[in-house]
Amino acid sequence: MASSRVLNSPAADPAAVNTRLTGRTGMALILDPLGGAVADVGAQQTAFPHRSAFATAQIYASATAASEAEVTHSVAEVVAGLAHQGIGGGYVNYIDPDLPDWPTAYYGPNLERLRSLAHDYDPDQVFGFPQAPTQQT
User: What pTM value is reported for the model?
Assistant: First the structure.
């Protein structure tokens, strides 16, 4: 199971982030720093709107067929807890079918432009997927 969040700045309370993971066996939070060349491109020049963010957070947890529901719930708790701490947004390459408000989380202010482009260039949704910009919530 996996999901993501985007840190617009360093976590205001890193200990609280750590506490969210305490006791969750098999779960990891991986931070990918941004900045540098990522920030050299404007937020509306590509589909990726998080150009000025500090980092992306990948939340990973291993599951078996027997533990899948429990692990999915645990990942969702961490994702929601991070959002409660002001760590929102999401990285579209870490698709989470249960991410709340995924259109805004993944595409931000680029959503309507991406929908328009998809309508013009992919009217048959050949490149569509459940959380593509063309999908409605």
Answer: 0.88
HSE (CB half, 13 Å, CA atoms) of 69?
Answer: 1
Tracing tokens 């931000």 back to the chain, one arrives at: 108
How far apart CA 54 and CA 112 sit, in angstroms, is 24
**The predicted structure's pLDDT at residue 39:** 95
The upper half-sphere exposure of residue 73, i.e. CA atoms within 13 Å in the direction of its Cβ, equals: 4
CB of 57 closer than 8 Å to CB of 6: yes
The C-alpha atoms of residue 95 and residue 102 are separated, in whole angstroms, by: 9
Q: So what's the pLDDT on residue 70?
A: 95
- How far apart CA 97 and CA 105 sit, in angstroms, is 12
Q: Are 111 and 102 in contact (CB under 8 A)?
A: no
- Mean pLDDT, all residues of the chain: 93
Quote the distance between the C-alpha of residue 110 and its chain's center: 15
| pLDDT tens by residue, 62-104 | 999 999 999 999 999 999 999 999 999 999 998 898 898 899 9
Kindly state the tokens that stand for 79.
Answer: 């994702």
Beta strands in 1-137 (DSSP E): 2-7, 27-33, 55-61
